[in-house]
Amino acid sequence: MSERNIILAGVGGQGILSIAYVICHTALRRGMHLKQSEVHGMAQRGGAVVCHVRLSYEPIHADIVPTGMADIVLGVEPVEALRYQGFLSPRGWLVTSAAPLRNISDYPDLDAVLEQVAALPHHVLVDAKQLARLAGSARAENMVMLGAAGAQLGFEPEEYEPAIRGLFAGKRAEVAEASLRAVALGRGAAAAYIQHRDEGLQGGQALARVGEMSEAALIDCGEGAEATRHGG
Amino acid sequence: MRTELLLGDEAVARGAIDAGISGAFSYPGTPATEIFEYIERHREADGVRRIAATWSTNEKVAYEEALGMSYMGRRSIVSMKHVGLNVAADPFMSSGLTGARGGLVLAVADDPGMHSSQNEQDSRHYAALGNIPVYEPGTQQEAYDMTVEAFAESERLGVPVMMRLVTRLAHSRADVRVRDEPHAPTDVGMVRDWRDWTLLPVNARRRYADLLEKVRTLSAISDSSPHNPLCIAGPKGILCSGVAMNYVLENLDEQDEYSLLRVGFYPLPVERVRRLIEHCDEVLVVEEGDALIESRLHGLLGANYIRIRGRLSGDLPRAGELNADLVRRALGKPAHESLGTAQGLPARPPQLCAGCPHSDSYHHITEALEAYPEARVFSDIGCYTLGAFPPYNAIHSCVEMGASIGMARGAALAGLHPSCCTIGDSTFVHSGIAPLIDAVHDDTNMTVFILDNATTGMTGQQESAGTGASLMRLLEGIGVPAEHLLVVEPLAKNHAENVARIRREIDHRGLSVVVSRRACVRIPPERRRSTT
Prior knowledge:
heterodimer, A: alpha/beta, 10 helices, about 20% strand, globular, B: alpha/beta, six-stranded parallel sheet, 22 strands
C-alpha cells in the first residue's frame, strides 16, 4: 500500500473520530505520514459528521481529499456515506453500514437508499448494528465498519490491535475485547458480502444471506479472505 | 526528537510548552479551543505544575492576563477564535505600544467558510492594524516550529506576535516531530522602565514611534525570512500563503514551471513580492480568508500594471474556504474524474442532544409567548442558537457574544413588548453582565432568560465561571429585583407550572430575569453534582 485517501462519514456521536484514531495510529506505527481533518464545534451536535484521512509514505499536502481522489468512503450510516460519494475515484469503494440513523423527519425510504449504494460498481453493505450486538457492544458499530473496510484500507487486521487497546485504555477490558471482535466480524461480513455478490446475488439478497451466517462462519470468512489475498 | 499525532491547535500548544511558557490564557471558541485544552492537560512535568492555565472570563481578560505575565518577563500564550479578537481588540491594539517583555504569542484561529462562526473575518487585518508580525503556518509541523520561534522573536524584538491559524489546520491532525523535553519556563525579568508600559500620551507618543521603528525592522526580516521562500522560474507566477500553499502543491506536477512565492511571515516581504511580479506575466494569488495580499498588490501597483488573479478577479471565490479543487480550476487544470455526486439526499443539520435542557426551555418560552405574535426573542452564541431551527423556531436573532441582552433592551426602548432574550450562563458572564446592569438601571421592560446548563456546552463542556449559586449571587449583586428573579427547572413534567410563571414575568412591565437551570446532559456525572 503506498497512498490511501479515506473519507469517514456518519452522524455526530457514532464514533467517527474513534475510527480515525485507530487508522491513524496504525499508520503511524508503519512510519507513514498522515493528515486527518475533523469536525468540531456546532456541526458535531447530532449532525452529519465527516472526517478525511490521508495516508502516504510521501509528504501529504492538502488536509482534505480532493474530488475524485478518494479510495474509500467508509460510512457508519448509509445516507451519510452516499453524501460523500462524489469524492470517490471511479475505482473507489463505498463501504457502509446498512443500518439507518433516523434523527431527521425527511429520512428517505431505506430500500431506495440501499439500492443506490448497491448500484455502485465497488461497494460493501454491512449490517453494523446487528454485528455490533453480536460482538457484545451495541456501541461498536464504528469498529464493525473499520473491520469491513479492512481489505480496502490495506492494513492487516492484527495491526489495529495496539491502537484499539490504546483507544480504550481507560475503559473496562471487555470494551477493547468487544471492539476487536467487532473488527473481525465486520471483516468477515464484508468478505462474505463480496463473495455473495460475485456469485450473482443482488445487494439486498447478499445482505440477508450474510445476516444468516453464524459468528464462527463470519470470522472464518474474514480469515479466508485474508488467506486468498496473501496467496494472490 | 519524537513524532506525535497533533491537531494544528495542539501543535501550537506543544510549541508553546516546549518554548518554556509560564502561562496560557483563553476563552473557549471553535476552532481555537484545543490550543488551551492541550496545555491544560500537559502543564505538569515531573509531577510539578509549571504552567498557569485557567479559562478566563472572556478574551479581553485573557489577553490582559497574558500581557501581565509578559510584563513579569515570563512567556505566555493567549489563544482565541477570530471573533474573540474583537473582544480583546482593546488590549491587543495597545500591546504593540507596550511591547512584550517576556515572549507574548497571540494564537488566533480564523474560520473561513464559517463552519462554526458568525463571520469569516481575517485576523491578518488586525495584525496590520496593530503593527505586529504574523506567522501563518501551512502545516502542523510549521505550527509547532513557528510557535517555538515566535516566542524567541517576540522576546528579541519586544513585540507581541500573532500565530494565525485557520479551521482546516487547527482541526486537522498530522505527524509532527517535536522536542523530547519541553524547555523549563524562562524568565527575563520584570519590565525595567514602567513608563514604557504606562501609556499616558507623553509615553504613548514615544512608544508608538518605537513601534513604527520595529515595523521597519520587521519588514527587513520578512524579506530574508526562510518562511517566505521565493523560487523564480517560468513567466506564470503563484503567490500563496499559509494552508493555501497545500492546495497549490497538491496540483503542481513535475513539469510545471511556475515562479512561486510563499508567505509564512508578515509584514509582507515587499522586495520578494516585487521580484516575483516583475518577473511574471501573470500571478495567481492564493490565500485563505480575505483577499488581503491580492488587494495590497492592486493598491501598490494598480490593477492594470500586471495581470493579478485571485479572489478579487473571480478566478477564486470571493468568500468561503478554499480547497484543492478550486485552486486546480484556477490553475486551468482539468478536474479529476470522479464517481459523481449522489442526488436527493436530505440535509442533516446539527441539533440539540436528546434530553437537552435548552429543548425544554424553548418549549416553555414559546408556549408562554403564544398570545403575543409580535414578541421577539433575541438570542446569543451557544448550543441554544440551534433554537432557530425546527421544531423550535424560537429565536429571532444571533449576532455576537452578549448581544442578546443589549439588543432586547434596545428593542424594548423602541417600544417592543414582550422583548425577551436567551443567553447561556457562560456567555452571560463573558459579556452579558454589562448590558444587564443597564437594564437594571432603568428597570427596562424586558425578560431575560439565562439558560444555566452549568457549562460552556458547544465547545466541549468547559467550566463556566458563573453558574448555580454563584450566578444567583451575581444577579442579586448587580441589583436584579428579588421579586422578579426566579429559577425554573426546564423539564417536561414542570411544563405547565413553568409556562405560568414565565407568563407572569412577561406580563410584568419591567425587568425580569428567569434562570432556567438544568445541567448539560454531556457533563460527565462526576462533575454534575455541584450544579443544582
